[in-house]
Structure of Carbohydrate ABC transporter permease:
Amino acid sequence: MNHRTWVDRIADWINVIVLSLIAAAMVVPFLYIFSVSFSSMEEYLRKDFILWPDHWVTDAYRYILSNDKFIKSVLVTIFVTVLGTTLNLAFTSTMAYALSKPFFGQKLFLFMVLFTFLFSAGIIPTYLIVKETGLLNSVWALIIPVLISPWNLIVFSQFFKSIPEELNEAALIDGAGPFKVFTSIVLPLSKPALATFGLFYAVMHWNSYFTGMLYLSNPKLWTIQLLLRQIVVVNDTSSLSAEQFVNIQPPPAETIQMAAILLATLPILIVYPFLQKHFAKGVMIGSVKG
């Protein structure tokens, strides 16, 4: 029988209370953002803190979604996220698979990867490289400089080493080439790793704004995070001049900010449940023996 002492029970209650406080500290800000975004101007001006609006209005969302700049930034962000994540996985998986196999010069290539992981050129040299290669004011400036993550590459390589070599040898005996083995055997067995790193890369591209600040001066190429920064940090909502609100009083700037934050976060929250099954397995990739 499991005999629990009063000390164990007190410890359990302390854990419950502490975890509940941590959960509340995470949930309350989201609830506040959600509530303010649906609040009317009168209610927002009357109350100092809103956790649940008395009257639900969608003026802030109609104001944002009727704006061409916001829709354009969403489309640019989707394009960068989808294309960037696809290229990230393609280049990371192929190079990781190559590094997982013994070949002449393997240690040199591995050293080069580790060197970039420990030391970076810095903001100014990287900016000069992007400028000299003609990537400024191009969506490629948000993709090519971060094409391969050294950390993801190393972990991915260790994952490939855990795949039984007998599978590869059997395919080679049957006449399959190295590329056929990689695409038909290795990649199907790597769904947890692909889902995990795909989610990491997708979140990185979707939330990236600093690289856009450095490399994009054309507002037409702004991603949703750059536009969100303009609305929230710079507190400039004048660029969101929705046609249907030109002749009437627009919603409060704060409700527009909260609605923009929620709309920028929503896509990742929608995608994650579909990858949760593979992501739960993929988080254990780093524990695979090399």
Residues 81 and 206 are 6 Å apart (CA to CA). Residues 1-57 form one domain.
